[in-house]
Design brief:
By secondary structure, the chain is of the alpha+beta class. About 15% of the residues lie in helices and about 30% in strands. The chain has one domain: Alpha-Beta Plaits (2-Layer Sandwich), CATH 3.30.70.3270. The protein is globular and about 35 Å long.
């Protein structure tokens, strides 16, 4: 089962990931991060298909998608 991890402190709330997700499972939180932005959250992880469009679209590289032991990471910590 795919897994989405949003690093809420890196997210600036642009909502590009919300629009990129073909399943429509991302939304904005009701809470603010330390920078004062509403951050992306996955509200229905069971419907994730692991396409990683959210991670690819994120300009802040705040999203990581893992699929069957493989991680799609667009940055290196």
């Amino acid at each position: 089962m795919p897994m989405i991890n949003v690093y809420k402190e890196k997210c600036k709330g642009c909502e590009l990931c919300n629009h990129a997700c073909p399943q429509g499972i991302l939304s904005m939180s009701k809470e603010l991060n330390n920078k004062g932005y509403f951050y992306a959250v996955c509200h229905d992880p069971g419907r994730c298909i692991g396409c990683a469009m959210c991670a690819i679209t994120c300009p802040d590289m705040a999203i990581e998608v893992g699929v069957q032991g493989t991680r799609y990471v667009l940055y290196d910590y």
